[in-house]
Amino acid sequence: MATEDLESLAKALAQGGVAVLTGAGCSTESGIPDYRSSQGLWKRHPQELGTVYGMETWPEEFYAFYAARLRALKEAKPNAAHRVLARFQKAGLLEALITQNVDGLHQAAGAEDVIEVHGSMAATRCQWCGRKDSPDRLLVEVHGPEDRPKCRHCGGPLRPDIVLYGEQLPLEAIERAFEAAERCRLFLVVGSSLQVTPVANLPGRAVMAGAPLAIINLDPTPYDAYAKWLIREKAGEALTRLAHLMGLE
Length: 249
Prior knowledge:
Layout: H1 3-14, E1 18-22, H2 46-49, H3 52-57, H4 59-75, H5 80-90, E2 94-99, H6 105-108, E3 115-116, E4 119-126, E5 132-133, E6 158-162, H7 171-183, E7 186-190, H8 202-208, E8 213-216, E9 229-231, H9 235-246
């Protein structure tokens, strides 16, 4: 992107009222690969394994998969993208910070009230009664259904407190996300391919409501043609440059 275009985006961001949507590309610089790229380590594709059916049918693989993800998250640290967005929030520029990620790195960078539309690996949840527990309950060796971590209250199976494939998104979170898209002054996408609905519809809702769209993503998205600003850079690098132009380093 030309410097003058980046400067115009910086000026628009500085006016506030920004709704931000982050995806996997916001966390790759923290050493967290998109889980889709890890499928070679597993016998089944995450879209098959990461389901309630997968939890019931292949418990050994299901819990090994999520235990590995949890261990990776324990080692991960926020990167420049997370830190800059947290500074934007502290400066009062954000209408909402919405994320598809389940890694908790926005909060680790100091952001608050993050709208986690796909849940979070920061807790487990009972499949039966919904009570939550420590994520470390997933760090057990499972050889069959009888070894699965169990709820301390009802004995039901514990699972990550995230949205598995085939499940509905948390209603409160997705409603807040769409409300933010409809009332924001500018909608900023950071590191999302905008492929997974209904979250992928958020930029369109913002554009329909009259907000300009900015996209920071290395790969093309279905909304590139609607973007006033399109930045093909790593999230941390682009946001750091924007923060510099805005005097928020």
